[in-house]
Structure formats: C-alpha cells, structure tokens
Amino acid sequence: MKRSGARIHCGTPRDLSLLARRLRAGELVAVPTETVYGLAADAFNAGACRRIFSVKRRPATDPLIVHIASVRDLSRVAAPNEAALRLAKAFWPGPLTIVLPKNEAVPDVVSAGLPSVAVRLPAHPLFRRLIRLAGTPLAAPSANPFGYVSPTTADHVQRGLGGRIRHILDGGPSRVGLESTIVDLRNPSRPRLLRPGGISHQEIVRVLGIPVARPRRKAGSAAPQVAPGQLARHYSPRAFVVLHERLPDRAGTGATAGEAWLFLRKPARARGKNIYWLSPRGELPQAARNLFAALRRMDEAGYSRIHAELSRAPGLGEAINDRLRRAAAR
User: Fold this and answer.
1) How far apart are CA 273 and CA 265, in angstroms?
2) Digit-coded pLDDT (tens) for 74-108
3) For the CA atoms of 71, 76, 77, 78, what is the dihedral angle to 10 degrees?
4) Range 168-181 burial, b when 16+ CB lie within 10 A, else e
5) Per CATH, which fold does 240-328 belong to?
6) What is the pTM for the complete model shown?
7) How far from the centroid of its chain's Cα atoms is residue 105's Cα?
8) Domain locations along the chain
9) For strand 7-9 and strand 167-169, is the pairing parallel, antiparallel, or unpaired?
10) Domain 7-208 class?
11) What gap in Å lies between CA 261 and CA 143, rounded to an integer?
12) More exposed terminus of the chain, fewer Cβ within 10 Å: N or C?
C-alpha cells in the first residue's frame, strides 16, 4: 500500500542540524523519547505550538509538556522550588514531568491558558541533542492523532501523522513505552501524582519525604487540564476494550470472530492468532514497553473487541493499568 508520508531522518549531525533549523523556523518535528514519540515545536513560538494542536486535532484545553536539555534550563520556563529540584536531581534525565508555576515566556497556548507549565528533561540522547541544537525548549505531546494509542516507533508516527507533518527523527523503539509520570508541585507542601508512569508513586514519596496524593479519575471536561493525560478516555484503540482482573490460560480458546485476548505474560495453554501477550515471563518493563504496540497490532488485525488483563503489581503495573483503563473508558 502506497503511503504519503513525512521524511524520516536518522540521528546524523547533518540531519540533526537540519531539524534544529526547521524547529527554529517554526516547523514541527516528530521526535523520539524514552517514553513515547513526541511532536515537537519551539515552546516559545505560539504559532508553532498552535500547529501541534491543529495537526493532532487536540483540544486547546489539554496542555503540552515542555522539554528541556538541562536542569539549568528549568528556570527559562518555570519557577522551580526545592521539592522540584530534589525530584530533578533524583530522576532527570528520565520519565518524570513536573508541573510548576510558569514563566511569562511560555505562551498561553502551551499551558491551556493556566499559570502553570509541565516540564520534563528527557533521557533520549538524540532528543536532548536536538533541543540543544535548536537552542530553545521544545513543547511536545505524543505524536499521534489525539486520543489514539501513543506511538513508540517512527513507523507508528508515519502511519498516524505522516500525511500531516514533514519531518520524523527516528531514534529506535521507545525504551519505557509509556508516557511520563506527572507530579504537580505548584504547591510543594501538597504534591499530587497526576499520572503514573515509569517513575513510581513510591519512588516519588521516598525522595520528597512527605505524602503524595494519588491520581483522581476524571470524566471528560471542557475545562483546561493542569497536565496532559488527565482525560478519562485516552490512549484508545478503535477496538472496544474489556478489562479483566485475570485471564485464565485457556481464555480466548474458541472465541468468536472479532475478539482478541491480551495477556500480561505468555499463557501456558491458549493458542491462536487472536492470543497476544506483553511479555513471555510477565516482566513489567517489557510489558510496559510493548503495550501500545500490541494494541496497535490488534487494531490493524481488525479485531472489534479486545479482552485485556490488568496487572496486580505496584509501580509500572499501576501505569499499565492506568493506560488500559483509559483505553477501555466509554
């Protein structure tokens, strides 16, 4: 099948220099991160950031995450506090986003009109190099049509947005595979976990040394969100997702046409083209890394219903469950 698509670049100095110039000129570039692929624009260029919303068909009430190349750059976009700097020292570069009061240099379109901004220092070396070459923080949500399963490879981006953007930087498959953990530190004495991810709630509590409120599930809302990934329905395949606390090994055997079954670990007995698993041994890092790709494969296979198994483990298990519950929300 012939596909119109964006140009895919590798991480050569020549390509990175070209993409940095394109970003400074106000263009969009899909970029690799350790979490998922993002759609990046100059965070200080309101017009470029508005194009992100247009390309993704993203509601203006859903803010963007601003990515920086160094902790020294944090003060360019936000007003850090001691708690934020402690988390940054412990987990940056890495899959942690911190919500803080924003600087005036950050356009309102980036923050959905709120006086706060979500900031992250990514661990992917190509992305950090590109931020440095561009000379500006980069705003970047996931590089996919709004609400659909997040992309973890350059090919996923090409299939979803390739006809709407010009440039994709290929940095290989995402190492974490789930969007970043988000912590709200606007009030450092009352930290809140807004979205679970690669950094667990327990790790955040350990570093801050005080209680951290857990996420509250929200219904759909037209009001601006404090951070991305807060909507009840998100990260969703086209197929209807049904959640199960546990799937028996023989689940899916003799299932009706159009149904697929997604196990956390490879089942001992179940067989068939409609049987999928996230990790042969149920290892959580591998399961998280494979989740979105598995949901995409089942969509491409044409299944109308996906039976998915929830994790019973803390940490990454909570993040996997969060994405599955949002995918299954009606």
Assistant:
1) 16
2) 999 999 999 999 999 999 999 999 999 999 999 99
3) 70
4) bbbbebbbbbbbbb
5) Rossmann fold (3.40.50)
6) 0.95
7) 24
8) 7-208, 240-328
9) parallel
10) alpha beta
11) 27
12) N
**CA–CA distance, 67 with 242 (Å, rounded to integer):** 34
Q: Which strand (E) or helix (H) includes residue 159?
A: helix 154-161
Is residue 221 predicted with pLDDT exceeding 90?
no
- Assess whether pLDDT exceeds 50 at residue 212: yes
Residue 31: Cβ within 10 Å count = 28
Of 286, 251, 249, whose CA–CA distance to 266 is shortest?
249
Q: Is the dihedral of CA 182, 223, 33, 261 positive or negative?
A: positive
What digits encode the pLDDT tens for the residues 232-278?
888 899 999 999 999 887 776 666 789 999 999 999 877 788 999 99
Residues 6+ apart with CB under 8 A from 54: none
Which one-letter DSSP state was computed for residue 59? Answer: -
Are 298 and 260 in contact, with CB atoms under 8 Å apart?
yes
Cis, peptide link before residue 93, omega less than 30° from 0? yes
Task: Kindly tell me the burial class for residue 191, based on how many C-beta atoms sit within 10 Å of its own C-beta (0-12, 13-18, 19 or more).
Answer: buried
**Do 19 and 130 touch, CB atoms closer than 8 A?**
yes
Q: Tokens 């219903």, residue?
A: 305
As given in the structure block, the two tokens for residue 71 are: 């902790």
Residue with tokens 């247009």: 54
Residue 325: name the closest of 210, 216, 165, 175 by CA. Answer: 216
pLDDT for position 222: 62
User: Helices 154-161 and 284-300 meet at what angle, rounded to 10?
Assistant: 30
Dig out the tokens for 16 from the structure. 């990175």
Report whether 75 contacts 88 (CB < 8 A): no
Structure tokens at 158: 């090409």
Tokens, residue 224: 């601006």
Q: Quote the CA–CA distance of 223 and 324 in Å, as a whole number.
A: 24
Residues, the chain = 330
